[in-house]
Design brief:
139 residues, two-stranded antiparallel ribbon
């Protein structure tokens, strides 16, 4: 799969989260199918059931508790900045952790995979990780 452009925006405020839409959805949906297929072949990885339709988005914030969100929703909808174009050229495999007591998620990058036409740049494992690791770090 080759790198592909997408546009981010507009902001979609909701009751529990603020997200940014990703358009067009086709490239991201295809990438999702391919990433799931690859991950599903790895022993020890258990995937949840695939949704009927993949929703490409980026989450900017989550609500920690219920609150009257009408003012926030109106303010965010009024912003409407122009869409931003970016190129999707890599995939990160991450371990994601939810911290309900802190109100956010964190993640550790396990590996980075460049899409087909992107040259993969790797540094020796000893330059970026403990000497006990045999994997190279790629950027």
């Amino acid at each position: 799969m080759k790198p592909f452009p997408v546009q981010l925006g507009p902001v979609w405020p909701g009751v529990t989260a603020i997200t940014v839409a990703v358009y067009p959805e086709d490239g991201m949906a295809q990438l999702n199918v391919r990433a799931r297929a690859a991950a599903g072949k790895v022993p020890g990885i258990s995937l949840r059931a695939q949704d009927a339709k993949f929703w490409a988005h980026a989450t900017m914030a989550y609500g920690r508790a219920a609150f009257p969100d009408q003012k926030l929703n109106r303010a965010l909808r009024a912003l409407r900045p122009p869409r931003v174009e970016i190129t999707i050229d890599r995939v990160h495999l991450v371990n994601q952790y939810q911290h309900p007591d802190r109100g956010y998620y964190t993640c550790d990058v396990v590996e980075e995979f460049a899409l087909a036409s992107q040259a993969r740049r790797c540094r020796p494992a000893s330059a970026t990780r403990s000497s006990s690791s045999s994997r190279a770090a790629c950027t």
